[in-house]
Amino acid sequence: MNEDLYVRLYRRLNKKGDVFKLAKIFDIPEGVLFAILSQKIVRKTKRDYHGLKKQSRRLLKQWKNGKSLLKLSEERKFSPVLIASFVLRENGMSKKHFREYLHNPQEVTNPRISREILEVLEEEVVYSPEAAEIQRENGKNAEKRIAEWLDKQGTEYITEAEARALHQKTPDFLLKDVFSVNGKNIFWVESKASFGDKIQMKGDYHRQLKHYVSLFGDGMVVYWHGYLNDTSSPQDFPYDDHVLISNSDLIEDSGCLNSKEN
């Protein structure tokens, strides 16, 4: 995806409905757009959470005057579940009960609260129990596909869970058999069930990838939903040429895997 298109999409993605609309307009997979929207929501949450939480009393007043939790969240372009938590906890609901109601909204005895919790859960992209489970499953499925790909190449590896006994910072796959991708030997593979925009790639590099290079040598990161200016063939990572960056095309078509090193 080129940067101009990414910027246009990023600006227009604010809620779940935008994903379905833009997917049709631009013929882009919904999974890619959900990944971009999720990252935007997380960044906005980090930026605006405390400021909006301070407005809880005002939000509660507007809710008591008839404005729905979903409407309050739409006006502020903020997570429906988090807005609901501000309002209902300001109204006296405990944190424990709020979490329980998110998992079991049918147990809420107040008809209005029950209805509106169901509404915010339907629209939530990141912070609902269902959204969190989808994110976990996406991550697990991405790692499973890489494992199957490595198995197909006959390459042995140590998983992240196994490697943690040896190192504090570990990639998803630490390779026992080094092999070459686009002429570069790699020693590890990291899976990211996200879209690699500049903020995401820079954050991933400083949090994880640069440490893997220091500990294990050259490696590769796979962004399952693509990255800025991606191609069907792996490229050098923008912040470090000791790291290759790829999208899922590599896993689906292993033609750019040159050879296993003995």
Jot down its keywords.
disordered C terminus, 12 helices, 2 domains, 262 residues, 56% helix, single chain, alpha/beta
Amino-to-carboxy terminus distance: 36 Å
* Range of strand content: 15-25%
Principal-axes shape call: elongated
Treating each run of at least 4 consecutive H or I residues as one helix, how many helices?
12
**Largest β sheet strand count, sense and barrel closure:** 7 strands, mixed
Low-confidence stretches: 255-262
Helix-strand makeup class: alpha/beta
Number of strands: 7
Series of H and E elements: HHHHHHHHHEHEEHEEEHE
Helix content range: 55-70%
- Number of separate structural domains: 2
State Rg. Answer: 21 Å
Mean pLDDT reading: 91
What does it look like?
The protein contains 12 helices and 7 strands. With 262 residues, it is α/β, with parallel strands linked by helices. The chain has 2 domains: 3-127, no CATH class; 135-260, no CATH class. Strands 1, 2, 3, 4, 5, 6 and 7 form a 7-stranded mixed sheet that branches. Helix 11 links the parallel strand 3 (184-192) and strand 4. Helix 4 crosses helix 6 and helix 5 crosses helix 6. The longest helix is centred in the middle third of the chain and has 25 residues, at 129-153. It is elongated, with a radius of gyration of 21 Å. The two termini are 36 Å apart. Residues 255-262 have low confidence and may be disordered.
